[in-house]
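Review form for a predicted model. The reviewer records the input and the model, then writes brief findings.
Reviewer: anonymous (R2)
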Amino acid sequence: MSVKIKREGLADKIPIDMTPMIDIVFQLLTFFIMTLKIASLEGDFNIKMPLAAPRAGEPDPNALVLNLHMTANASGDCANLRVDDQSFNGPEDQRWIQLHNYVASVVGEGSLAASAEVKIHADYDLKYENVIKAITAVSGKIEDGQIIKLVEKIQFAPPVPQ
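Model under review:
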């Protein structure tokens, strides 16, 4: 004799509530969108931003300070590029090469390279890309897979609106 078990109270399918699962998916999506970094870093420069007030004390007498003046034209491009009394003219691509060669000739690979400093005086309307080109030109270059550093200390003079 066999025993029959009745299954009258159980349904064939159990409904699953999808609302909590959808909430979790949207929270994860929001988290990953908020933490995504699209822009890559441009470079690691040792830059000294201008302070609110000048520091007390005397400057290092052995330090070589090159004042780089960059003036902008009406469209924001670099119209004039000069270091102290030395001007760099010609096509824009050649100006940055001339600037690099001049800094390399003044600073060299000797003891001046460690104490050399460039102070950038840029016009208020100058485009940012020109400042980056100037920093690249004075900081050094890569030759045969080796980094040749020229100037590591770079300062910015406060911009003066015209």
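Findings: The mean pLDDT is 78.
Further findings: The beta strands are 47-48, 64-72, 78-83, 86-88, 116-122, 140-143, 146-149, 153-156.
Recommendation: see findings above.
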